[in-house]
Amino acid sequence: MNWLNWTSEPDFTLSGLSNDERIQYLLFVIFLLLYLTSLGGNLTITTTIWAEGKLHTPMYFFLGNLSFLDICYSSVTVPKLLMGLAGGSSEISYRGCMTQLYFYVSCCSTECLLLSVMGFDRYMAICNPMHYTTIMNKQMCLQLAIGLWLTGFVASITHTILTAQLSYCDSHRISHFFCDIPPMLKLACSDTFLNKVFILTAGGLLGLSSFVLTLVSYVHIISAILKIHTNVGRSKTFSTCASHLIVVIIFFGSISFMYMRPTSNYSLDQDQLVSLLYAVVTPALNPIIYTLRNKEVKIALKKTINKILIAK
Asked: Which CATH architecture has domain 12-311?
């Protein structure tokens, strides 16, 4: 198959989440609210960090990147999901499917790297505070951000090309609510060995290495926190990284379940549930997790809201 000749390929059909109309409308309301929460919350955090000078630090710079990434993340899959739940067409063109897969894998890869960099930032701030401002300067933060975004979006090109080269026989019904790699491999009638090898290789290089680096950072962070003599000091220090740790556990746990296991263990119900967690629910939860546990962000949000009200 010529992967550039997308226009001649037949459309795919997404199975969605349910065939019961009553359940579909209920799910539509739930996921619409989650999507609006994700857009509103992440856009608010991004705008607040940009507008408030006190938040122009490495920690909030990367948080702003995470919020923007979550907007992209959820926007890749949720609009098509909502369209299907509202009674719209469940079909997606071959070109649209490959485009969705590319941007989804790009966002997923980028978030792996970003969470790892955020963990390193907290490690430097807590374990090496004397050199923190020297190492994590504006130039370094900008280079890290550009590097992780480029790496994530370039790495997904190979996934997309390999998936586009597969032959899809009689059935073009994808057992998922968006175009993801595992269900498309199950649908293919050509050899998928190379695809599976690359998934495990890329998962090891990007996903597993990012998780290990994050884990190492938190081993040092927790060790440093335990050496603090006062409970107040330990609590205050841990609060600066608690939100990030919660997000790391949810994200890497979900990703590991989806991609770091044999495709023969693929289960539609389980994988759709996990996909909903990190593609729909997590982007909506991240703003809540970070704002509720962060006094500086809450103060900055109040200032931004007051400025908007005064301007009106």
From this structure: Up-down Bundle (1.20)
